[in-house]
Amino acid sequence: MSALAIERAVAINAVLRASKVCQKVFQNLVTSDTVIKKDGSPVTVADFSAQAVVNRILYESFPNDPIVGEEESGSLRGDSGKELRNKVLSLVNTVLDTPLNDNELLETIDRGNFPGGSSGRMWTLDPIDGTMGFLRGEQFCVGLALIIDGEVHLGVLGCPFFPVDLKAPEGERGCLFIAIKGQGAFQRKFSSTEETQICFADISSPSAASFCESVVAEHSSHGDAAKIASLLGITKPPLRMDSMCKYCAVARGDADIYLRLPVRIDYEENIWDHAAGCILIKEAGGVVSDINNKPLDFSLGRTLKTNKGVVVAHSKIHGQVIDAVQQVILKK
Ligand code: AMP
Ligand code: MG
């Protein structure tokens, strides 16, 4: 059996079930299901439910593996959290084989509170990456990765609204992306278990490239990206997309470069926003670094403390992209 085969199967099952939960919530999305987190981003029933589903499925197979998950159960507790808690519980129990009770639900969500670090195994989960995309009915994903001794070994991304073929956006949607260190990157449709290997589009000059960036300009500077594109001679308009779906788009050759350019100097990227995407890129033949050409370091806790931004490109052009990024950032 190949390395991490059981982990791969369990992670796929967890991500597919969590994706199903998100799709159900989307169908019934009403504003009252949205609460505001401390950082102002909207959190829905779906975030909590997806985290509960993934954490529970991981727990059933790997009870000793810690999890670094985005959500915590605070707003589901007590009388004030009862309405939301009941909605989450009934949703979670539609996709789990063994139903949870109230306490198990809260405990399961809070299994995601691991502080992270450099030794041993840990999973990291973004139950819904790209909440803004989710609320708009655009791109979002469930992102799960296994980190061993500070290095990402497995990544699974469930992208319920991602077109199977980006050139046919009205066609079938729903893609799962899977990567294991040393084993390649794969895609499958939600509607099938057949997997196809994916890789970067071949490119030799950055001027022919297209690049991806966030829809939300507060997450990545659109102005700096336009300057970098101009320096590189890029003429194609940016492909704007929420969530780690950007990593998926580049990994399968829909675009060539992903730029995430810091807007706030004090912002630390979360490991769950990048771990699964990072291994997908490497296994599809690309290079991932931060804006200073440093590798992303997943061994330092819940955030990428020593990194700023993200730059992804084919190895043939990554160096040139970094040079352009440095020129624009240093000029500021
Ligand atoms: P995206 O959909 O690529 O724009 O990224 C969504 C992610 O951006 C969310 O999961 C947040 O964790 C993260 N985020 C929040 N604030 C910032 C910020 N100031 N800079 C970069 N990313 C952020
Ligand atoms: Mg996220």
Please describe what this structure looks like.
The structure is a single chain. The protein has 332 residues and is of the alpha+beta class. 34% of the residues lie in helices and 22% in strands. The protein has helices at residues 5-27, 45-61, 82-95, 102-110, 131-136, 222-232, 245-251, 275-283, 315-330, and strands at 34-36, 42-44, 67-69, 121-129, 141-148, 151-163, 173-180, 184-189, 196-197, 211-213, 239-240, 257-260, 286-289, 310-314. The protein has a seven-stranded mixed sheet with strand order 3-4-5-6-7-8-9, with helices on both faces. The chain has a five-stranded mixed sheet with strand order 11-10-12-14-13, sandwiched between helices. Strands 1-2 form a two-stranded antiparallel sheet. Strand 10, helix 6 (222-232) and strand 11 (239-240) form a beta-alpha-beta unit. Helix 2 (45-61) crosses helix 4 (102-110). The chain starts with a helix and ends with a helix. The model has no long low-confidence stretch (mean pLDDT 94). The structure holds adenosine monophosphate and magnesium ion (MG). Adenosine monophosphate binds at residues 129-130, 214, 216, 218-219, 242-243, 263-264, 267, 270, 273. Keywords: Hydrolase, Magnesium, Metal-binding. Its EC number is 3.1.3.7.
Structure in a nutshell:
The protein has helices at about 5-25, 45-60, 80-95, 100-110, 130-135, 220-230, 245-250, 275-285, 315-330; strands at about 35, 40-45, 65-70, 120-130, 140-150, 150-165, 175-180, 185-190, 195, 210-215, 240, 255-260, 285-290, 310-315. The protein has about 325 residues and is α+β, with helices and mostly antiparallel strands.
